[in-house]
Amino acid sequence: MIQQQGGCLCGNVRFATTRPPTRVTVCHCRFCQRATGSAYMVEPIFDGDALTVLSGDAAVYGHRSEGSGKIVHIHFCRDCGTKLWLSFERFPDVIGVYAGTFDNPCWFSIDPTLSKHIFLDVARTDTIIPPDVPTFPRHATENDGTPNVPTVFAAPHLIGSTP
């Protein structure tokens, strides 16, 4: 059983995942930019029962997604404010972990067969997208679950340049 641990800055909230992620989303939306204070969020996605809280009690903030209109639950340390993982009204059986909160944030692969980049329509114009990864201007699926057609670049792609 894989057990990768992580936690907040102050150490009060600790968690472990018991399986590898089912996929990895690299999200460039404004919510993720603001939530991480960065250009994008690397978010390994796990089955909901793959995360165990080892210590502490995360607080939860509910935010209505501009994209889906559904609530995104941000789980964070009430003492130091570190955002740890997300749960979703839209996808109730999964959780997304803020990758940087793992003790080893590189333990999982961002393999093109299991990952995607979303919300490229609001990505920083100096972001380079790796080749062979499915990309989407917004979500990968419509609110009704209909999949959107990805764009896959054959070579590294600079956001803001023509494909």
Low-pLDDT runs:
none
What Rg is obtained from the alpha carbons, in whole angstroms?
Answer: 16 Å
Counting helices, strands and paired strands, the structural category is mainly beta
Strand content: 35-45%
**Secondary-structure element order, as H and E?**
EEEHEEEEEEEEEEE
Give me the number of helical elements.
Answer: 1
Strand order of the largest sheet: 6-7-8-9-4-3-10
Alpha carbon gap, first and last residue = 42 Å
- Overall mean pLDDT score? 95
User: How many beta-strand elements?
Assistant: 14
Roughly what percent helix? under 10%
Largest sheet: 7 strands, mixed
Tell me what you see in this structure.
- With 163 residues, the protein is mainly beta.
- Helix content is 4%, strand content 36%.
- It is built from one helix and 14 strands.
- The chain has one helix spanning 30-36, and strands at 4-7, 14-17, 23-27, 41-47, 51-55, 59-64, 71-76, 83-88, 94-97, 115-118, 128-129, 134-135, 151-152, 157-158.
- The chain has a seven-stranded mixed sheet.
- 29% of the residues are buried.
- The mean pLDDT is 95.
